[in-house]
Amino acid sequence: MSRGLPIVAVTPFPVAAERELGDAQLRGNLGRATRTIREKRARVVAEVADWEAMRERAAAVKDEVLDDLGELLARFEAAAVAAGATVHHAADAAHANAIVTELATAQRAESVVKIKSMATQEIGLNEALEAAGITPVETDLAELIVQLADDTPSHILVPAIHYNRRQIRELFARRMPGFSETSDEPAVLAGAAREYLRRTFLAAKVAVCGANFAIAETGSLVIVESEGNGRMCLTLPETLIAVVGVEKLLPRFADLGDFLRLLPRSSTGERMNPYTSIFTGVTAGDGPQRLHIVLLDNGRTHVAQDPLGRAALRCIRCSACLNVCPVYERAGGHAYGSVYPGPIGAILSPQLTGQDAGFNKTLPYASTLCGACYDVCPVKINIPEILVHLRQTGPKPAAERVAMSTLSWVMRDRRRWRAALRAARTGAAPLRALTRRRGGTLRRAPWPLSAWTAHRDAPLPAAESFRDWWRRTHEQA
Amino acid sequence: MRIALFVTCLNDALFPQAGIATVTVLERLGHTVAFPAAQSCCGQMHANTGYAAPARQLERLTESAFAGHDVIVSPSGSCVAHLRAHTALPVYELSELLIDVLDVTDVGATFPHRVTYHPTCHGLRSLRLGDRPTTLLRAVRGLELIDLPEPDQCCGFGGTFALKNAAVSAAMLTDKCTNAALTGAEYLAAADNSCLSHIGGALTRHPHAPKPIHYAEILATPGPLS
Fold it and tell me: Which residues of chain B make contact with A414, given a CB cutoff of 8 A?
């Protein structure tokens, strides 16, 4: 398992993907799980008559946030502080980790309970807390599975998607104190986790959460969840620390409606999620008495400067793009080397940490540009367009650069192009004769085309190009 | 109608049959086809591989090669999608031209075979071709159209993706070929020879798999009256 920066690919994507592809169990688990969620999503989205209009509105609201980021942050901070919260600003991961660790230490907390949060994954908060002697306990069932396995998440919404229930039972038997079940029924496994977590919730002094939305108008935070563990974390401990990416803002409370309809249908394929918590500041005698909000930048204002790439910041972490991506389905989340896998990860990680970091530059190529991700994105992020944009602005191999400009030079002039076509035809003539019985295709070619012929025959230049046929049939009397 | 053909660089060099078939269908329907010889590549390959400047040069070249033509047709969904996104050319994929512009569904073809159709990604999601190609195929005499399982799944081609991410590409290709073979069809038709050369290159290694064919070639087979 890679333990580098949580949003930098430490291995080239093709290498990592090939390694993951060798795991037949993983492919089976992923194929089944993504197909199920994909079909559920398609069913519940089809029910909504104004889905397209809602996507448009949500995209426009998020673009408004990116346009007015500074002003909306100030408005959010003023409202949150007025309601009794303390607001911190973290420029990067190290800064955010230092703030949270210091706050937890000030409460003499030996452990903190955590709500599933991508922002805290992104900054590697668990590792920072452990280094300070504080035990972070993930309370989302899937995050708990990943944590018990000392693994990393492989999906934004379903971090343990790469495990099946038999593997989870074995893991609980090994790592969960007091576990003695022999059944791997999902209800039994969830029940065991509930027992274990209940004890943890009652003892916790500090909770750490993220936020799905932060409302600038009211200073409220919104957390959307399925299991109810979040509600426990938000209400039981005395101190609550929220780590919130600055792009999570919505200008007005009224904007929330569309997003609360878009998110569950896109992510879990549910019409509505079971628990939605909206909280504003501190209420005396009820719930946490100390609320700290850490507003996290970590590259976001930089990404917001790129007129094309910044649409990636609209993302509401629904993971619909992962579930429809044929590359993600085969390679799995770990191949992306980031807590943000799949199509959104391929445009988010290289933008947040730079294409020169690790092997981030291989991520924009981890796509066939098939467009399935764009079709399902609830905030209309044109992921294929941003992938191409990152390819065009990122580092490229010198040999490829030469080959591409030579090809373009040949293609830009009709005499050169016709000569090239004829040369290819003549050069391929002996091969065509040799392979005629098989339909004139090539079974084995030298590098770099060997990557093609390892799995498929290569076509040979035709005996007569189209333009020669045209000249013969349409231009010669 | 006078219709200009953008044959595409790939078809010009490797799959001239698709261009010839497009010309055959349109001429049979009584139209005049023009082939501006200054054309070569639309720039898609360069753009998608990450080379913006040469892509722009090829886009401009295509624009000037087709200047003055009111209706342009191309037997390639992905090239049409690229030109539509990056130029103002009035370019149509063949099924769009036939159904939307010429209002034809029966092109007078006969093809007494079992055929399955793979909707390639750009045709499916960029151009929203929908059922246009299969509407044309259903009108072909003797043709039995068989549904392809999981039709909207990408075949794994993706241009240089097939080389740069060969393992994932091959895994996607295997699933596409398995689905194609399940149909029991004699031919697998599609609107893009790039995807077809990828799928077809693997299908030729299996004895009982369908043969790859551009759907224009099916439409070009002569009917009973011609």
Answer: 37-38, 40
